[in-house]
Design goal:
The complex is a heterodimer.
Chain A (H helix, E strand, L loop, with lengths): L1 H34 L2 E3 L6 E3 L3 H7 L2 H33 L4 H16 L2 H12 L5 H8 L13 H29 L3 H9 L4 H12 L1 H16 L3 H6 L11 H11 L3 H27 L6
Antiparallel strand pairs in A: 1-2
Helix pairs in contact in A: 1-13, 2-13, 3-7, 3-10, 4-7, 5-7, 10-13, 12-13
Chain B lengths: L6 H31 L4 H4 L13 H42 L5 H10 L9 H10 L6 H25 L3 H9 L4 H12 L1 H17 L2 H6 L8 H11 L4 H35 L1
Helix pairs in contact in B: 3-6, 3-9, 3-11, 3-12, 6-9, 7-8, 9-12, 11-12
The chains are: A mainly alpha, B mainly alpha.
Chain lengths: 295, 278
């Protein structure tokens, strides 16, 4: 009896965390599912059960599909630069002989990841700005004046411009983590390969790539998950425009719920986002549970 | 390692260095440009973007400070400090309970707390707004404190728990033999031993809170409760085309975290590396 009481009292250690996560992380998630089945009129305050009507509306909403497409584009380009590119870059940095230079380069590349996406987004808003922005000035100075354009102001380039900023902001983060993974590979393996006459390119493909594949998988998953949760940079740089061409799921949810007051519809978009991010997270779980690479 | 000073090898090294340094310029130049613009006048800003400021005055910084940045900064500091303390304490408590106390349903509780890692904040947005409105906490400092704490507990607990699990059992036994109660063992013995990981979690939480935008944007609107990431966008929209002031504000927002990164780099890298795949 006393022992049971003692064990139960032990719960006090876990309780604060459990309550906070339960009430503010899990509960809203469950409520969201319920909200997504409501026809919710914010002005009259009426809430009516609408079944799957919001989801049907979703299926017929071109902006929803273009938002989803933009997220997918974001994910694909980020995988190329922040996973594959970062792995290559990290290996290249390891090729630098001076440890001090290695550290300096990694730190410099990371700086944009330390600052907020608001600052980075505003900064690139100005860099892309047609009149005062250095990008167009540089193009004109290089005799490529016909390429100068309103990067964020036209549908054809706005999304790519935002994604480009995001690569600038994020590649140093994954490069740093790949560098950590590469440093965990024992130097003798590289030494032995070099003695066997394997060149740097061969060492990269035959040692580095296979031995950091766990980190590669994790980075791919983290990058994917991040790409579907994009919000800050789009809000700051274009607000979803011009003509909704840069909407992503996050900003379209915001606009539907908090600007047009269609909470039921916003909740339906949130459910889609939930399914995607949960799927990615489950993939991550499955991935980390698998046997680790052993030296 | 065998190194051959072949012609090809030299060429390769030259290209490698050229690429790495060019990339460093691509990273640093925009940041330098931002900093320089904070010193320019509006006329200079619309002139040659590559020119240096004519007069190195801190006027724009003073203007930014007086046009709200001092408020945003105060709120940011307040939210960051309080939520860091709250998050790290609650997480350390939970980690201690999960790793060193005989708690019923340990596995289920661990899964419940760490499972929060899988959920995207965006998904919970609509119900959270309703919840905070009904609690009367919408558009208050408390909303941010609670949200930043609740949503970062899973990650922070994950890191501290992974560290505590590796501490030897003998430590607890020694503390018990000395007659220390649970609380003393936690506070005086285990927590001090966790200092490296606590430092990592504190730094990562500061970086997160200082830069967070989604919650800050949706849950606050008055200038008295806005943090820097949202405040900067207000500064931008409220003051028309006085852009140098905006640049000054951006520098004020960015500088503390960049410094923090350079000072705590070792701990931040360790925390990030453990956080992604331990």
């Amino acid at each position: 009896m006393r022992a049971t009481l003692r064990r139960t009292l032990g719960l006090a250690w876990v309780l604060p965390a459990l309550v906070l996560v339960g009430v503010f992380v899990y509960l809203p998630l469950v409520q969201n599912l319920g909200f997504s089945t409501l026809e919710w009129d914010i002005y009259s305050g009426s809430q009516e059960f609408a079944g799957l009507a919001n989801y049907a509306k979703l299926a017929g909403d071109p902006v929803f599909w273009s938002s989803l497409g933009n997220n997918a584009l974001y994910a694909a380009i980020s995988i190329v630069f922040q996973v594959l590119g970062a792995l290559l870059l990290a290996a290249l940095i390891e090729g630098v002989r001076s440890q001090r230079w290695q550290r300096a380069l990694r730190a410099v590349y990371f700086i944009p990841s330390a600052i907020s996406l608001t600052v980075a987004g505003l900064l690139f808003y100005f860099i892309y700005e047609p009149n005062l922005g250095p990008l167009n000035h540089a193009l004109r100075a290089a005799g490529l004046g016909e390429l100068a354009q309103a990067w964020l102001g036209q549908e054809s380039t706005a999304m790519s411009a935002i994604i480009a900023m995001s690569q600038w902001q994020g590649f140093g983060y994954s490069t740093l983590l790949f560098a950590v993974a590469i440093q965990r590979i024992p130097a003798e393996i590289y030494g032995a390969a070099a003695i066997d006459g394997v060149g740097p390119v061969g060492r990269f493909f035959r040692i580095t790539v296979p031995l950091v594949r766990e980190m590669t998988g994790l980075m791919a998953i983290v990058t994917l998950s991040g790409a579907f949760q994009v919000f800050n940079e789009v809000m700051v740089m274009t607000g979803g425009g011009p003509d909704n061409s840069t909407q992503v799921l996050g900003t379209w949810l915001y606009r539907s719920g908090f600007v047009r007051n269609d909470f039921g519809y916003a909740a339906a978009i949130a459910t889609v986002l939930f399914v995607i991010t949960l799927g990615v997270a489950v993939a991550q779980l499955w991935f980390t549970r698998r046997r680790r690479v052993e030296w | 390692m065998v190194t051959r000073l072949s012609f090809l090898g030299v060429i390769a090294r030259v290209f490698m260095w050229a690429f790495l340094l060019a990339l460093a310029v691509v990273v640093l130049y925009p940041l330098l440009w931002m900093t320089l613009n904070g010193f320019k006048t509006n006329a200079e800003l619309f002139g040659d973007p590559f020119a240096l400021p004519l007069d190195w005055s801190f006027d724009n910084y003073a203007k930014a400070w007086n046009r709200g940045v001092s408020d945003y900064l105060t709120t940011s500091v307040l939210v960051t400090v309080t939520s860091t303390v709250a998050t790290v304490f609650v997480s350390a408590w939970a980690a201690y309970g999960l790793t060193r106390v005989d708690v019923p349903m340990n596995r289920t509780l661990t899964a419940a707390i760490l499972g929060g890692l899988m959920l995207a904040p965006t998904v919970a947005l609509v119900p959270l707004v309703k919840l905070f409105q009904s609690m009367g906490l919408y558009n208050t400092f408390w909303a941010l404190l609670i949200l930043y704490t609740a949503f970062r507990i899973p990650f922070t607990t994950f890191l501290i728990r992974a560290y505590m699990i590796d501490l030897p059992r003998e430590v607890d036994e020694a503390a018990e033999m000395d007659g220390a109660g649970r609380w003393t063992a936690f506070w005086r013995v285990i927590l001090p031993m966790c200092k490296p990981i606590l430092t990592s979690t504190v730094l990562l939480h500061i970086l997160f809170t200082w830069n967070e935008y989604l919650f800050a944007m949706i849950f606050t609107s008055g200038s008295g409760v806005q943090t820097l990431p949202v405040g900067l966008t207000s500064l931008m929209s409220k003051h028309g085309t006085d852009y140098p002031v905006v640049f000054a504000g951006m520098v004020i927002a960015a500088l503390p975290v960049v410094l923090l990164f350079f000072l705590g780099q070792r701990y931040i890298v360790k925390g990030l590396a453990d956080g992604i795949g331990k």
